[in-house]
Amino acid sequence: MHSYTEENYLKAIFNLSAEKGEVSANEISVQLKLKMPTVNSMMKKLAVKKLVHYESYKPIKLTEKGKKEASLIIRKHRLTEMFLVQKMGFGWEEVHEIAEQIEHLQSPIFFERIDALLGYPKIDPHGSPIPDKTGKMEWIKYEKLSSCKAGDTVRLAAVIHTTDEFLKFLNIRGLQLGLKIKIKFVEKFDSSMIVSYNKSNTEMLSETECERLLVEKI
Amino acid sequence: MHSYTEENYLKAIFNLSAEKGEVSANEISVQLKLKMPTVNSMMKKLAVKKLVHYESYKPIKLTEKGKKEASLIIRKHRLTEMFLVQKMGFGWEEVHEIAEQIEHLQSPIFFERIDALLGYPKIDPHGSPIPDKTGKMEWIKYEKLSSCKAGDTVRLAAVIHTTDEFLKFLNIRGLQLGLKIKIKFVEKFDSSMIVSYNKSNTEMLSETECERLLVEKI
DNA sequence: GATTTATGTTAGATTTGTCTAAGTTATAAT
DNA sequence: ATTATAACTTAGACAAATCTAACATAAATC
Fold first, then answer.
1. What would the mean pLDDT of A50-58 be, rounded to a whole number?
2. Which residue blocks in A57-151 are alpha helix, DSSP H?
3. Which of A22, A154, B162, B165 has the greatest number of C-beta atoms within 10 Å?
């Protein structure tokens, strides 16, 4: 179908344009660690294949076709991450790199089997939604922890902008999805929070950290 | 390390030269479905990398380094096949194609985990030995079923020159590794055999089929 | 509004892995 | 032993994906 390389572009564009619906060529080049002319020529190629809307000097958007293709790759990525955690005993901080490779496998039966063995999961180990077979994906509307107030009690639902380091940071503090967290205090000048959970733990979380934690109010 | 393409050449050369210790460029081109000049230029490249011994108009041999690299890819392939069968419920006829892709993953922890989850298996689902981490592999010296005589009782130990079709053929007849088989009769003119197993089954196996079944005498 | 800076584009080179066409060497057949 | 066939090599072309250098446009700043 599409090359490994094209798939990586589609995924990058999808992720980078998640909020605004469009990306600059520059952002893509930073994300994929490629030079701008490389991105430029790939955009022309993807435009010919009707995967992106591309006009000179304008931001890049995925077409409907492009979005679907990207979603299906992300589906494979997230199913794989879930399988690695649930069935192979990996930590949530170990799975990204492996899934980056497995997501490109061309084998519908392989991913169908993973899906079935996992019981058709709706979210991945980081709380991100897994697109369905048609490429549809729905983000449940969680709040950022950073937007909560002192006194709120919330449940940790997802981690965004995950890096191995941040996930290890959460591991050390015993912070995992589903955990009930009580916000004790919000520092005025830097928006850091004092939170408690698991009956005994009390921790300070910086604003950056709170921006990356999605929660649902209880 | 080495490219996906180079890995496929190494594996092909390893498999094709298993018996004689050397291969012709022509055999490689047939195996990989590539034209001869393509193979020729790759041989020069692999020779520069000290992975093969190559001299004009002479058969191709893997160097020790080349053998080790090839064995480690085959190790990943066979571990993967075992995992797909034992842990994911695939049939032995379904796993080759998937393992062909997974064998190229660059992730030592992934294959170490597979190995551990399987309990460090020594053979794959088709009875082929799995090389160890240093690339060493030992074929237990099985006999071909075709070399056995009427009256012999044997245990099915491995299937060689496997194709999906042949494995499905065995599935239909309930022939699986470990099975005790009694040779009832050997037809003189075509070397086909009448065998019985599982108390009730009696089947005729052609010479070609018997050549592909490795057994140990009981 | 003019100028500087950041972003985007074009042109052309490079690497990898493939091909076809043409020529060379070895092997098989008469 | 000569010839015919099969196997191998060389030369040169091509596509994919990358790069650098030079140029063009848009955005930001003064």
1. 95
2. 64-86, 95-102, 108-117
3. A154
Residue B35 contacts strand C, CB under 7 A: yes
How many domains, in total, are found in chain A? 3
* Cα distance between residue B54 and residue B82, in whole Å: 34
Burial of A145 (0-12, 13-18, 19+ CB in 10 A): buried
Confidence check: pLDDT of B152 > 90: yes
Using pLDDT thresholds of 50, 70 and 90, give the confidence band for residue A19: confident
Q: What is the mean pLDDT of residues B119-146?
A: 95
Q: Please name the residues in contact with B153: beta carbons below 8 A apart, sequence gap of 6 or more.
A: B180, B181, B182, B183, B217, B218
Residue reference for tokens 């058709």: A120
At residue B53, the pLDDT reads: 96
Q: Does A200 touch chain B (CB under 8 A)?
A: no
- Is the minimum CB–CB distance between B113 and chain A shorter than 8 Å? yes
Helical H segments across B140-206, by residue range:
164-172
pLDDT in the model for residue A129: 96
Whole-number Å distance between alpha carbons of A181 and A138: 25
Look up the domain containing A211 and give its range. 143-217
> Could you tell me the pLDDT band of residue A201, with boundaries at 50, 70 and 90?
confident
Does residue B87 sit in the same domain as residue B131?
A: yes
